[in-house]
Structure formats: C-alpha cells, structure tokens
Amino acid sequence: QLQGHFIHGTLPVIHVFNDYNVTSIMHVFNNELDRLCDELSYSDIGIVHTYVTSSVLPLVKNSVNMRCDNTDSKIAVCNSMYSYSAQWPAVIVLYTVYRSEEYNLTNLYLMLSRARVYCSVVIIPREGDTLDDSPHMLRLLRKLSSFARIIRH
C-alpha cells in the first residue's frame, strides 16, 4: 500500500492558470462551486485558500454568500493555516503560486488533504507573474498528471 492521503472519489481536478486573470479565475471557481452546490449540502463544501489577492478573495466570499443567503447550511471559507484539522466531503482549493517558493508545496498538500471525496484545485500565479516563473510548480504538475485531471487555462 502506498503511503499518504488518498481521496476516495474521482480524480482531483487541477485548474492551472498561466496568467493572473481575475475574470477567468472567477469563471472557473463559480463553475466548480455550482457543480458542487447542485450535488451536496452546502455544509459539505469547504473553500480553502492561501493568501489569495485582494481582487479575488472578496469575489469568492461574495459568490459563496450569495448561495448561502437564504439557508442555514453554510459553505466554509478559510485560510489554509486555519484548516489543518478540518475536513469536508468536497473542497475547492485556491492556491497562489509564488516565484521560487518550493517549500510551499507542503501547504498545497495539506490543503488537498482537507477533501475526503472530491477536490478541485485552482492554481493561480501571483499577480504580475506567470506560471513559467515557478519551475517547481511546473515539475510538480508533470508528476501529478497520472493522479489528477489537469486543465490548463
């Protein structure tokens, strides 16, 4: 048996953005969230994020709040550093890639492990960067290609 955390469901979906584009990022995020909201109770969904820029995080929170406005069931939105013991059946990870910060890949793994059944990851380069500025992330994506469905945007 292989060691590590396994998601007991479909292959994780990893959306990879080469450029920082708020409109495209929010389009993908809302599509993923719509799909989960159609299938699950809101309380079964967690949104875990790193330090997402000030132009994306308010839009994410607004999108979540609009869905949960008239219900007692709430979608959890939390920073990764406050989610280490939390788990949800479905998780959307918003992960910002910083140039030359390979040690942050541990944080990405911890965020992925918050999901028990389904995980969707949105990998965003830092504003002003491209994914090409982060060779460590490109190497990781090549390694993950057998274990996740990778969609490039």
Describe this structure in words.
The structure is a single chain. By secondary structure, this protein is α/β, with parallel strands linked by helices. It is 31% helix and 25% strand. The chain has a six-stranded parallel β-sheet with strand order 3-2-4-5-1-6, with helices on both faces. Strand 2, helix 2 and strand 3 (76-79) form a beta-alpha-beta unit. The N and C termini lie far apart (34 Å). Mean pLDDT is 81; it is low at 1-7.
List keywords for this structure.
153 residues; alpha/beta; six-stranded parallel sheet; 25% strand; disordered N terminus
What's the topology here?
Blueprint: E1 13-16, H1 22-39, E2 45-49, H2 57-68, E3 76-79, E4 88-97, H3 105-112, E5 115-125, H4 135-144, E6 149-152
Helix pairs in contact: 1-2
Low-pLDDT parts are: 1-7
What's the pLDDT, averaged over the residues? 81
End-to-end gap = 34 Å
CA-based shape: globular
Q: Element order, helices and strands?
A: EHEHEEHEHE
Would you report the number of β strands? 6
Side-by-side strand order of the widest sheet: 3-2-4-5-1-6
In percent terms, what proportion of residues is strand?
Answer: 15-25%
Q: What gyration radius follows from the Cα positions, in whole Å?
A: 15 Å
SS summary, helix count: 4
Tell me the structural class: alpha/beta
Please outline the major beta sheet. 6 strands, parallel
Q: Level of helix content? A: 25-40%
